[in-house]
Fold:
Amino acid sequence: MCTVCGCDGDGATVEAHGHHHHHQHHGDIHFGHGPAGTEVPGMSQERLIEIETSILSKNDRYAAANRERLNALGALALNLVSSPGSGKTTLLCRTIEMLEGQPLAVIEGDQQTSADADRIRATGAPAVQVNTGKGCHLDGHMVGHAMDHLSLAPGALLFIENVGNLVCPAAFDLGEDAKVAILSVTEGEDKPLKYPDMFTASRIALLNKTDLAPYCDIDLDTFETNLRRVNPEIEILRVSAKTGEGMDDWVAWLRAAAAAKSARQAAE
Amino acid sequence: MHEMALAEGIRGIVEDQARAQSFDRVTRLRLEIGAFAGVEKPALTFAFDVVMRGSPAEGADLVIIDLPGRAFCADCIEEKEIAGRLDPCPDCGSGRMMPSGGDDMRIKDMEVV
Structure:
């Protein structure tokens, strides 16, 4: 049994986890090999029993433990959420290059393959891949195990690239400081209205691939109006990971958020 | 969205409770699901039946209680009940509504033997 969380390895595979989970190359982690193909912490004389417990309470406990670990380090964790193909990994690679000197690490979530973690590792940043099997989202339990494989430095930035999916990841707290929604302009300006939950849950949205806007009949102002309709408080940055447009603002946002988190930790 | 995963979460709680409160079987389980929880009720009902097999809640009656969506109107400075996430304020018609509740997914209670 796992000494951290007591999990019995129910279909889960954690690379280089040192016990029951299946080991694979690069310390990548696999979940969702169980019968249902998903893994949920949350999720493990006639009388009425009051429960009043959130269905996701177990996940929330794992997330709280992750948050405590991150807070103790003054490390800032961002949960990157988007549809598949929005350019998350390219954006992240570019971001890492621009953040030279900033201690950081990446947790990559995908149903299959370690392709994304390989791309991140090629930048020189430590990354661990979590494969969710048939699961549609990362959860607090998976992220806790992934964090075990990353020696996070005090004041580090932790990027958690969630499974590409605008629905389920909205509901699963991972212990992050903020969700960052990434949208590519090619997805259409009605995306925030079609999938409001995710944009309501996000603190900032990055409108990516702005270099393609002239070719796809898109109005970026309408995109922003729709984002603010579902979340009046959301911050929005227009970026192109390919051309670098707007990336300075994004990196400045990251540095400010990381500094604020470290300062908060130092004050406590 | 992830109704199968939610059902597995329910099963985990049922099994923990069965150990803690010493019961063998759940005859009825009541959930409270908010309008903005993103839960598809027929899918959850289906997943519940499948996932509870072999657990104390196998064959249990599943009752889903709907909770209304809530949002804070920035113009009335007050929380309102709304049916859809993008609905305007029912009183002043403002579109400046910040969702503030209705994403609940809770097990309310269980009848057990």
Residues 58-267 of chain A form a domain with the Rossmann fold fold (CATH 3.40.50.300).
